[in-house]
Amino acid sequence: MSNRLNPRAVDQLLPAKRASLTGSAEVLRALPRRERRRVGPFVFFDHFGPHLAQPGAMDVPPHPHVGLQTVSYLFSGAIEHRDSLGSVQVIRPGDVNWMTAGRGITHAETVVPGAEPLHGIQTWVALPQERRKIAPAFQHFSAEMLPRVTYPGAEVRVVAGELDGPASPVPTFQPLTYLDLRLQPGTELALPVAADHELALYTAAGEVTLAGTAVGPGVLAMLDSSGAALHLRSAAGARAVLVGGAPLPEPTVIWWNFIVDSIEEGKECEAQWKAGRFPLVPGFD
Known about the structure:
Helix content: under 10%
Structural class: mainly beta
Number of helices: 1
């Protein structure tokens, strides 16, 4: 059997670290970090909740982005998105909000009070260098629009990319993998994956054993680079996401909320924000 068909192994276990947002909100941040800056084009990965859906739990005031796409995905609860294009969209479990910053956008997110406990994932996808200055855009895809692939004891939602044929309707500028895995107790699963993608599995709840290595809650498991399958097992059940994609070529610099070609460009974007030259989000003073 060739290496392309062998199951991938865990190369490195990286526990997410606590990080503060605005107010009292805290998240578990898996990317970026000193040990690993990105997985494919995914350069940022926050896991928030579960916690009560109340003001301050996940209220992020208007802030800018350049050169990337923000991806909001919820397991439970609800968040309202607003941006400088005039978009207003509540995201609910299983939906995906996919915002393209391009040459510049401002957005804000606020928790919807009274909903179920808030629990989800926020990621950033770096745009390819030739696409970083495209026009900003926002797209919402309801849970019903995203394919679900069922296996014995498991359900996998295809947030981006494809799985065993079914493909997500989310348009991307590069090959991506983003899968939401819901594993029942006692599940054993062989999952096909793109052999040329950099991949990482993050366990949001429960524990997953991947090729014999246990990946506990709040841990990002970097996978080795050979193989077109994952062998997963969960004794007690788990919720996890698999993210990655084709390796991102340089130059790629993360400076604050921007993906740019150089530190100097990042500093200039930050200066433009401080000078009030980014577009405003309607409804925010």
